[in-house]
Amino acid sequence: MGASHKIDGLTPAEACRRQVEMAAEHMDIEDWVVERLLVTNREVTVNIPVKMDNGELKIFKGYRVQHCDVRGPYKGGIRYHPDADLDEVRALAMLMTWKSAVVNIPFGGAKGGVQCNPKEMSEAELEAMTRRFTWDISSVIGPARDIPAPDVYTNPQVMAWIMDTYSIIMGQTEAGVVTGKPLELGGSLGRFEATGKGVYITALQAAEHLGIPVEGMRVAIQGCGNVGGVAARFFERAGCKVIALSDSGGAVYNSGGLDVESVLACKNQYACVMGPKVEGEDISNEELLELDCEVLAPSALGGVITHDNAAKLGAKIIAEGANAPTTPQADEILHDRGVFMVPDILANAGGVTVSYFEWVQNLQNLLWSEDEISQRLNHILKHAFNEVLAIAQEKKVDMRTAALNLGVSRAARALKLRGIYP
User: Fold this and answer.
1) What pTM did the predictor assign?
2) Domain that holds residue 170
3) Are residues 152 and 264 in the same domain?
4) Which of 5, 60, 299, 306 could make a disulfide contact with 228, Cβ separation 3.0–4.6 Å?
């Protein structure tokens, strides 16, 4: 597969660079610093040979892109997706740098991807591919160097295979090489829910800021996996009406509020959100985005809110559970319409925050309680939200520009203090 397809005239990496350049206009920052932060440090592409169950050899393309490590080790997920390519992984690596900096945790940004369709692969094939991919990138990852995590279509089991393979290479158990591991292998309590919970926490902060009551607040969520499904449960428990949920096949809508557990159970059992016990009507993913609601949480893939549909969105608040779901052109339209944006590098930073907690626990051989983790996560995300909001109000810019301002300025300060060597 070639370069990423363009949305609103830009590839994912070009869109991320455009966002940084727009944020830099509101910052006192030297050109050479921006120049340095707009390029990646290292991009690794590997060809992964896998003997499939039918005896055939198949070669998969894998990527690990390391954007910036001036604030600490590289950090970022690995996704398994048919459309994964170098440009997309490059964009996501850059977003990880800003995300870690916005919540002020000592990580840089990286991302990984393998171009495959995990839905069409057996567990044995996925394990073989994962272990060979780990072997191929083992020289660039490590607990003090680059720490992968789960992302689209990867999970704790995949992290367990990576950790085991890396540990075999090192000749000792290296729990800290990945986060998002199973609890039995040094995973952290609260890690699985962290990204979705972060979407919920930051969306509630936005609602409070706008004076929108939480009880009965209508929420539409695109995606019902680790992010969307988890967020839906938290919104429902808080007394919100989750009026729509979707997966890649379509969406289900009920204006009076869905029974979230029924939808998720249906997804689990029948691999779709619409089933016999779900009360609601079938709608498309595109229609979901345009529903009249207080909160829209695009929590699946990137590039879904564009110049074409931004003017039709019916939400007051957008909380970006996915990475880069909104194009720069769409951002301008939404800002002009007064839609309150909680950008991805803030809204979905719960995952990297609890990944940091997991990494710290691994390095120190500690185990924190779920309460401790929940309190720390709440504190960090609310503090970051208030910092971003203060910048937005002071500089009279939208929340994404404010968040990028905060993230990029922290990375820029670290870069200037460390300098360019030699």
Assistant:
1) 0.94
2) 12-20+30-175
3) no
4) 299
